[in-house]
Amino acid sequence: MSVFTPARLAPLAAGLALGQLLGVPAAHAQTAPTALTVQVNKPGAPVSKSMYGLFFEDINFAADGGLYPERVKNKSFETDDHLIGWKALRGAAGLADYRVSGENPIGPTNNHFLRLSVATANPDAGFVNEGFRGMGLKQDAEYTFSIYLRRGAGNISALNVTLEEPGRSGPGPETAASGRALAQTQITGLTNEWKKYSVVMKPTGTAARARLKLTVEGTGTLDLDVVSLFPKDTWNKRENGLRPDIVQLLKDMKPGFLRFPGGCIVEGRTLAQRYQWKETIGDVAARKPMINRWNTEFINKFTPDYYQSFGLGFFEYFQLSEDIGAEPLPILNVGMACQFNSAELAPISAAKGPNAGTSSSAPEEPTLDTFIQDALDLIEFANGPASSPWGAKRVAMGHPAPFNLKMIGIGNEQWGPQYLARYEPFAKAVKAKYPAMQIVSSAGPAPDGALFDAATKQLREWKAEYVDEHYYASPEWFRKNVGRYDNYPTTGAKIFAGEYAAQTVGIASPDNKNSWDAAISEAAFMTGLERNADKVAMASYAPMLAHVDAWQWTPNMIWFDNLRTYGTPNYYVQKLYATNKGTTMLPVQRAANAANGTDNLFASAVADDGTGDIVVKLVNYSASARPVALSLPGVKKLGKTGKATVLASTDLNAVNSLDQPQNLAPQESTFKVSSSNVTYTLAPYSLTVLRIPGKR
């Protein structure tokens, strides 16, 4: 795939030394410095504590096969095509028959299982599971294999479990041809009743595309269900934990919020396929999978095997938010299916308000009251005491303390009068029961136009706390729109830039790249977000995650395979802003009040009262080094040494990859500070963050 072709950095411009790339005193520059005044003596608005955050959606195999590290695909045979992920091994015709059955299942929410019938004893009579584009296994790491088994007629005495590198096979049923076995075990003590078996397996080698092979000893019938292979190495070593390398990248950003579970996945193609949070909590083995709405959305990336297991559900999302220090921001369906698909609408009945309904599951034809009640129940699940019905469910899952939910989103990316007609009673019902709850509303999928203007006007009249704006556009659009929020009202609704990413080719093009051109253009745009901290309260790049072998959308912030992961240049831009967020916006002025972005120089600044630093962010979108002279009127107690963090490349097509994860990554250096007038030279095509020790 072209998006992953490793790009070597182009040679630096002739005569440009490494010291200049990382920033050098302006005296060495050949042109006069551009004067910038950072008005330390005229501080602006506080910077929101949740200013820079994360957007999670289960697209690109972001959950199953990614952040959620279960290795077995379709572990409970509950998908529409019950054998997705599984293939029979016809071991010398030993496997006489197999079928998915519902006869005396484990339970009402897990009512399918695999029944094997073996006529002739054969060591290769059984099944294999392919995992999510293979199974990533690490040498000497521990994996818990578990399964429910029930023996039927005959004398089957054991189940053989093998983790192996697959051999070559042709069309039709899998053959027994295998590569090396990485781990093997045998399960005995089978009974005529359902029983869970569990064993720890430790591979003797590393493989990115291993598979699980299950074969039987003896003849007769054997029923299998809830087949799991789960790594012990999870974030915080939790039994149903998350993939630690991905979580670490997220935590390193110090995000202010985590928005989940999406995205269009909230809506579903139809209301029956919508995301229902109540189906994603409780016993993991009892959570019923559902088709992922991105499975066949794009012809060029047709993935009919893409399901949601909900092993990563709302409890785990809240837990992840807590783990990485982010405010949880759940987005809830407003009674509308995706308007790009069926556009199905739930009827608006007379809203019953905070006591509408008590059922824990939606009726077959839900009305708006159903969706309102789901929201009220979610708030109780997150924040309610153990004595409340939904709070008790949270406590039972192992989290006695409330999650301290402060905000929810009503609808994802809806637009038009249908959305506004549902939003108003929804918001009123939430506020009636939880008046302190902050609500995120939608301005639609486009950042302009008649529908956008109408929604923004109406939501402001209704005193919405946050209006969610989305923009996917060219890198040039981001640089040209750096002043987008300069003239927005300073009172009323705050802006949530909930989804944005520069598209190097075109929206939804499979050829988009996470190039430096895209990332530096986003960095330039973000100076405009920061300069308008009195209007913009939250912002997040989207989408967040993508599997290199199973993606549907490009570009994405973090890419991974079954064993490795890397941050893109866009990730490092987001990280530099989030980890240098500061506490108070400081106005930045140029001579003659030139606009931000004049001559492709973009700037913003904040005071960080926690560290006592003045933080200046500078984007030089030009092929030449650029000296700047910073004046800091009003600064006090200046330190002698500042820190510069620089993300730069003269190759605008530079990308990172699994093999070159640090091809483009921030570099740190120090510089001398002798007075409130600081000079510095910006590298060509660079984002530079200067931390200058000095109180205001």
From TrEMBL:
<feature type="domain" description="Alpha-L-arabinofuranosidase C-terminal">
    <location>
        <begin position="498"/>
        <end position="686"/>
    </location>
</feature>
<dbReference type="InterPro" id="IPR017853">
    <property type="entry name" value="GH"/>
</dbReference>
<keyword id="KW-0325">Glycoprotein</keyword>
<dbReference type="Pfam" id="PF06964">
    <property type="entry name" value="Alpha-L-AF_C"/>
</dbReference>
<feature type="signal peptide">
    <location>
        <begin position="1"/>
        <end position="29"/>
    </location>
</feature>
<dbReference type="InterPro" id="IPR055235">
    <property type="entry name" value="ASD1_cat"/>
</dbReference>
<keyword id="KW-0378">Hydrolase</keyword>
<keyword id="KW-0732">Signal</keyword>
<dbReference type="InterPro" id="IPR051563">
    <property type="entry name" value="Glycosyl_Hydrolase_51"/>
</dbReference>
<dbReference type="InterPro" id="IPR010720">
    <property type="entry name" value="Alpha-L-AF_C"/>
</dbReference>
<comment type="similarity">
    <text>Belongs to the glycosyl hydrolase 51 family.</text>
</comment>
<dbReference type="Pfam" id="PF22848">
    <property type="entry name" value="ASD1_dom"/>
</dbReference>
<dbReference type="GO" id="GO:0046556">
    <property type="term" value="F:alpha-L-arabinofuranosidase activity"/>
</dbReference>
<dbReference type="GO" id="GO:0046373">
    <property type="term" value="P:L-arabinose metabolic process"/>
</dbReference>
<dbReference type="InterPro" id="IPR013780">
    <property type="entry name" value="Glyco_hydro_b"/>
</dbReference>
<protein>
    <recommendedName>
        <fullName>non-reducing end alpha-L-arabinofuranosidase</fullName>
        <ecNumber>3.2.1.55</ecNumber>
    </recommendedName>
</protein>
